[in-house]
Here is the input.
Amino acid sequence: MFQYVLFDLDGTLTDPREGITKSVQFALMQQGIHEPDLSRLEPFIGPPLLDSFMDFYDMTQEQAAIAVADYRKRFAPIGIFENKVYAGIPEMLGHLKDAGIKLAVASSKPEEYVIRILEHFQLDGCFDVVVGSNMDGSRCDKEEVVEEALRRLGKDPGTGAMVGDRKFDINGGKQFGLTTVGVAFGYAGKGELEAAGADYIAKTVSALEAFLLKGTGAKKKDANGNKTVAEPKESPDGKSAFFMKAWEIMFPFILYYLGSNVCYIVIITLFRMLLAGGAGFDWMHENSVGMASLAKACSMLAGAGVLIPFFRKEQTAWQARTEASFPTMGFLAASSALGINIVFGLLQIAAMSIGYYETERMQYQIPFLPGLILYGLISPLAEELLFRGMIYNRMKKYFSIWTSGIASSALFGLYHGNVVQTLYGMLMGMILVYAYEMTGNFKIPVMMHGVANACVFTTNYYPAVGTVTGMPVNCVLFLVVSGVCFGMIQKKRIEI
Here is the structure.
């Protein structure tokens, strides 16, 4: 077993593709170079930025230094958080720590950024030493970084390992006699790790963990004679990996469903026991809608309650991309909700779903104020905690923002159980995801959800209000207001 392990950061512990490539793209634009294909900028992940600008775009050292400065203008506030931890990394680090192995990060990225990223993903407590380059460009070569990490660890080089996804990591580790482990899930080119002479190559995080814990791992050679790490039987590949991801993403929904439904059943059962027979039964029958609504409110709070500990542990924060105010976001929610509802009315979409009429009948039989509290406060809090706070954030660990946003919004729509609310939920879900991403503040989608629900509930509860607001001309007005709000949000986007 190794006494200590040094890890590269980008492409090894985290996947920084979006943040790095978009920041490089931004820096190139400042130099008059238009590069629309982000995949062509992936070689920037790993090596020192200064060298990369000179190597890939034939810049002079002076031009490259300016490009690095421009890169940091975008990366520091935004790009640094356009990043995600590879699945299984936190668990692996915990297991290595439990085994008594000292852990260090040795990255060519500025040390200030490395620390911020580790803190952001709550990985900072896993490492005994964190080393990166200096902001002035010094100590950016991997050999220098590894040397400094070893100095801070105070360890004999022969007893440790260097783990990374690029040839620079392998070369840096070999310079000091470390066992070098390449990870194939990073950004190495085809044959790059083999050509660099990596002692071992791990195809997955689970294989990497198995090797580091065993010290030798189950060794085999590929067709070229290079050593690799055999996959452990429990390796989450193929179908197993798919089901593990699906389980992780859907677990909050299952937990919420069980918690809320158990609470609902318990409350209804208690009502029936307390009011059984005679006048009590008659009262219960007469007030069945109110009782069902009360039970529903309590059940939603119970479902949210079981999720809160997970949310507090997993919640992520990111740099806000706009300085748009709460009122702007509120107007966006209200105008979008009312505009979409009028469009649905004009298209007679409600006629497509019998289930919607039953849902609508139940919703508007309860008194206005309790209904407003239920649909304008309790429901938004519980549903946002589930769909944006948990499911969407978990999806982002494996998928892009777009994919995660569309998929979580589709689930949000389907959750409502009828065609009308499914379509409405998908559309509003995307708006809420947009607001969440732009502000980085979970309170925003909760507030917007509440405003949207309150507006729709009020207009449908009072026919006179609904008649006035539901006129076709108002549809255009609401959609225009929505467009204006989107424009204001983009206008106040943080300049980088």
